[in-house]
Write a structure and sequence with these properties.
CATH class of the largest domain: Alpha Beta
CATH topology of the largest domain: Glutaredoxin
Structural class: alpha+beta
Largest sheet: 5 strands, mixed
Shape: elongated
Strand content: 15-25%
Bound molecules: benzoic acid
Oligomer: single chain
Order of helices and strands: EEHEHHEHEHEEHEEHEE
Number of strands: 11
Number of helices: 7
CATH superfamily of the largest domain: Glutaredoxin
Radius of gyration: 19 Å
Distance between the termini: 40 Å
Helix content: 25-40%
């Protein structure tokens, strides 16, 4: 069954390049990004895994653990990782699940038979420390993802989890945000947004990013 926003992310145990992974144990108190790629030894996936590894410190800064997956074996993953390290000038630094039995792919609905009957699509699940699914993305095999965008979304998710704000189009960390329309009491607004806010329309009010 498809996994929707707000669902509890299913737990699992599966083999990986770093040994068996118990998902909840692996996540601990952290946020998580679980993402699938269609297959080892393929060009787009090679660039994606290389970029994800290069950005690991950015994910760590945000308290996010990364976990990749495809329906290949640990042996294949390990041989392919040599290629990733060689060609993407990086060192793979997070585990890749070896989901040859499709346990996790099926659990997370990562195989879309009308797209490909055997390989996973490019799914992304961002999971909060409460184990709830905060974001899902699905890209086809032919389109590589933008891992800077995944970081940007995590910035938004983490900000909006703590403040009654939302992030507008193309927002990036440091830019003004919008105030949740439900907040209308002026005293409450002054208390919540001491840096002030601008009323453009009653439902469109901007304020400096509150956690800076
Ligand atoms: C790739 O990663 O390059 C790829 C994988 C499956 C189908 C098409 C492209």
């Amino acid at each position: 069954m498809a996994i929707r926003l707000g669902d509890t992310a299913p737990d699992f145990t599966q083999e990986s390049t770093h040994g068996p992974i118990k998902f909840y144990e692996y996540l601990g108190e952290s946020w998580g990004v679980l993402f699938s790629h269609p297959a080892d030894f393929t060009p787009v996936c090679t660039t994606e895994l290389g970029m994800a590894a290069s950005l690991k410190s950015e994910f760590e800064k945000r308290n996010v653990k990364m976990l990749a997956l495809s329906v290949d074996s640990v042996d294949d993953h390990k041989k392919w990782i040599d290629d990733i390290n060689e060609t993407q000038t990086t060192t793979m630094n997070f585990p890749v699940l070896a989901d040859a039995d499709r346990r996790v792919s099926d659990l997370y609905d990562m195989i879309h038979p009308e797209a490909d009957n055997t390989a996973t699509v490019r799914s992304v699940f961002v999971i909060g420390p409460d184990r709830k699914v905060k974001l899902t993305l699905t890209y086809p095999a032919s389109t590589g993802r933008n891992f800077e965008e995944i970081l940007r979304v995590i910035d938004s998710l983490q900000l909006t989890a703590g403040y009654s704000v939302a992030t507008p189009v193309n927002w990036k960390h440091g830019e003004d945000v919008v105030i949740a329309p439900a907040l209308q009491d002026p005293d409450d607004l002054d208390r919540r947004f001491p840096k002030g806010y601008e009323v453009i329309k009653p439902y469109l009010r901007t304020t400096p990013q509150p956690n800076l």
